[in-house]
Amino acid sequence: MQGIWVRRDSVRLDRLKHLDWRLKTELDQHRATTDGVVGRNSNLESVDGFAGDALIYFRVKDPAEFSTIMGELLG
Fold it and tell me: Which of 15, 24, 20, 17 lies closest to 3 in space, CA to CA?
């Protein structure tokens, strides 16, 4: 299994419903900080376009799932 982070506005989730994914929002980050835990995508805050945005975390299990996600990202 491999994890892939993408911006929420980069994909149409209705086309990827069959995949294992989790939406991570600014609220999730606030809760993690309040609880004293560095969470959500804290390690991605320095990546252009990821800081403060809603992100989706895909748990990719095979090359076909990876191809589906990349196809959606690249249009």
Answer: 20
